[in-house]
Amino acid sequence: MRAVIIAVGDELITGATLDTNSAELASHLTALGIAVTRHLTVGDDAEPIADAIGAAAAEADLVLVTGGLGPTLDDLSRQGLAQAMGVELVEDPRQIARIAAFFTALGREMKPSNRTQALIPAGADAIDNDWGTAPGIAARIGAARIFVLPGPPQEMRAVFGERVEPLLVTDGAIVRRLLQTYGAGESDVGERIADLMDRRANPTVGTTVREGVITVRITARDPDPDAARRAADRTAREVRRRLGEMVFGEDDQTLPGVIGDALRGAGATVAVAESCTGGLVGKLLTDPPGASQWFVGGTVAYSNEVKTDHLGVPAEALATGGAVSEPVARALAEGARQRFGADWGIGVTGIAGPTGGTADKPVGLVYIAIASNQGADVRRHTFIGPRDRIRSRASMTALNLLRLALRAAGKTTAGRHQA
Q: Which fold has domain 255-418?
């Protein structure tokens, strides 16, 4: 099955709003084994919308359209679809009642303009939207199936997931596995699993990258659900074997969540001392609910005075190697652990840019230290990109180093118990 995704909206054409819907839908369709052949972006004009839908229906089996279903005069996706189908718009009484009930539940009166949202091309079907006022639309043009979805990402996600996606799974069972990895580039991960990524294979294997996290997607299809599950699990085990400790979680697990679970399971706590990351490490560690069980506190130590007075960084270390150095990172991590009474300490110091770099210490140079009662381990990293990217990657790398340290400590403890 081939699919085309069409995003509608002047705000997308002008760049005022980023089109995240198309990327999310493409990811879902790929996981279902549906090949996305094109993405189109069209402004708020009925004729170009109709042309785009007609052209997509001529080349694809499935067309997904997002946006343009609101109540205002520039919301013209329903008109464009009707034009592409060669039919008139008709009012759906059931959708009028549903929209009115939606406003009643909010204690508000439905505006006359909202009746526009109940207009559906003749011969098409309305798709209930329990998360907003605009119903989706399901239609056919020739052999192609057309689905028009609301533009707001939360509504789009819910309507697609609850109403549309189940209609696309028709030829047996589909089982998906997601493996979350960190610590290597996409090319490195790709080389290790290259032979598994043959698009003709079953299961199919692919990768996506977001903020340094590489997600390996495994999709198995089979008429027999158990056979699909076994195939997905078998491939997941092989990917884990090849990627080793780079794999930190599955499905929707996050790096902060996995670390929180590890700290809670060990009955351990962590504190942070940050310079160039400005509190981002602490922010990530406290993202998961219940973070107070493992996160004690932290210090954003930008000035040398704060480093020495609040965290015990030796003045001679600052004078000799400067604030961005291995000894200072180690002292920050140890100072955070000791001053906050935590089991683990994280210290981060670096040059986030865009200025401040030198030949010896370029922009992007970051030292990250992880301290425990066994001492401190310091790693030197050089990240590239703008300031925000350097800070984000440094923070995520600090968390990953803590994860690996917790993993090693757990193995050591298990070995002692066995001995």
A: Maf protein (3.90.950)
Residue 362: count other Cβ atoms within 10 Å of its Cβ: 13
Among residues 16, 60, 22, 62, which one has the least CA distance to residue 41? Answer: 22
The answer to whether 117 and 70 have CB atoms below 8 angstroms apart is: yes
**Same fold for the domain at 2-168 and the one at 173-250?**
no
Domains of the chain by residue range: 2-168, 173-250, 255-418
Structure-token pair, residue 396: 């995520």
CA 246 to chain centre: 18
Tokens of 76: 């013209």
Q: Residue 38 is which amino acid?
A: R
- DSSP letters of 251-271? TT--HHHHHHHHHHHHT--EE
CATH-assigned architecture of domain 173-250: 2-Layer Sandwich (3.30)
Yes or no: say if 361 and 318 are a contact pair by the CB < 8 Å rule. Answer: no
**pLDDT tens string 89-130:** 999 999 999 999 988 988 888 999 999 999 999 999 999 998
Residue with tokens 């996706």: 77
DSSP reduced 3-state for 229: helix
The two three-digit tokens of residue 101, written as one number: 């009930």
Q: What is this structure's pTM?
A: 0.73
The DSSP output letter for 73 is T
pLDDT of 335-376, one tens digit each?
Answer: 999 999 999 999 999 999 999 999 999 999 999 999 999 999
CATH superfamily ID and name for 2-168: MoaB/Mog-like domain (3.40.980.10)
Q: Which helix (H) or strand (E) holds 57?
A: helix 46-59
